[in-house]
């Protein structure tokens, strides 16, 4: 099976900027949500917990969050599958619904911190880059020279 | 637990302008400028001017005599049971020697009073000279949003705790405002002994009486009860929905689950994703059940509730390294595991 991402640079640039929330809950439903009136209306700043910290609630559950940017060099995309694949092996097609540059990250009753799985997972782009970036000839030679230098110094 | 930051304290006479305005007919005073409730009429607009997703505290003027003479202070609450709307805590106080003023107001057994009668007494407390000269009061409107989020915190905060914090907060604010408190009377639904002990610990210098049905025994508690009840009724009347709902005359019934009007409200105004408007206390089982039936299922991340199960390495672990066919199962790299990353072939 193959997965087609059905968009190009053009509709990518024209993509609707979406207001995206990262919620600490699984919602078993698919459809429109009245985010503006039922949720955004209730977002408040809570600077007593730190700069940029926001509070809100979801079905009575207290949330604490912050506005986050998509990591540098990355773009946020929302993709949608209009037709569910018939079987596991059939081809799939995902369309572009919109794009986002930032989003609101929410924790359930916890100030966002480096402990959050999301932030920990975000280390990957750095690691991936370190592992896959080509190393230039000059850099290698400099490294070898440095190692020789070190070997000489140590008796 | 009510966040201190949520409290919006409106004290009187903050500026010279408000003092000037106090000389005018209290009904005409713009509550927005003075932050004062000078009569029953000003109560609704005052509440409407506050955010209804947060708590609001209001303190009346402290009559001079209450700073001087030893006072009794009554505490009572309104709207504890309903699934809709705020819970309101109220206090009222007056000098011990002026018990007569409470009788003149008609503060006896507030449960026997009709809504109309309560409104009249509330208005009298704020307008009649014999009352304003010696009776002061304060209320805290605990928003349904605060109630839900307190009860749904990771470390749950029960309604009893929310209540006690509010009661003690109001007493403290009366002290800070200069009220010379000698005796405190508190109405309670729970066991009085524990409550009394907690209050005495915090306020060791007062004579504290916690009793069931105190509002029918002590007129000062009755006065507090009237302030709380009238405030709750008005809060519901002026409730405006940030969700954009408009309900004719705010007809949602008493808020008790048995009320058919309330039941209809709870079935009609369900948003599939967000559930109810935040007039509703999500933490009430009536609300929980209605959502379980009608809204999308929602499951929260609750990693904190997982109990650590470590009890040494299991003996059988050593047989688990291979599959039946003899293939070795590779454990996932710790680096990825700790960062909640895994290989995804399908999504």
TrEMBL record, chain A:
Domain of life: Eukaryota
Entry-linked InterPro entries: RNase_H2_suC
GO BP terms, alphabetized: RNA catabolic process
Gene Ontology terms: cellular component: ribonuclease H2 complex
UniProt-listed PANTHER family: OS02G0168900 PROTEIN, RIBONUCLEASE H2 SUBUNIT C
The protein, known as: GM19965
Automatic annotation (TrEMBL), chain B:
Domain RNase H type-2: start-end pairs: 70-296
Any one GO biological process: DNA replication, removal of RNA primer
Pfam families (UniProt xref): RNase_HII
CDD domains: RNase_HII_eukaryota_like
Highest taxon of source: Eukaryota
Keywords: Endonuclease, Hydrolase, Metal-binding, Nuclease
Cofactor binding description: Manganese or magnesium. Binds 1 divalent metal ion per monomer in the absence of substrate. May bind a second metal ion after substrate binding.
Gene Ontology CC, one term: ribonuclease H2 complex
Gene3D superfamilies reported in the protein's UniProt record: Ribonuclease H-like superfamily/Ribonuclease H, Ribonuclease hii. Domain 2
Entry GO MF terms: metal ion binding; RNA binding; RNA-DNA hybrid ribonuclease activity
Sequence segments annotated as region (Disordered): 1-32
EC number: 3.1.26.4
Primary enzyme class: hydrolase
Binding site for a divalent metal cation: 76-77, 187
Keyword Nuclease appears in the UniProt entry: yes
Gene that this sequence comes from: Dsec\GM16670
Name of the protein in question: Ribonuclease
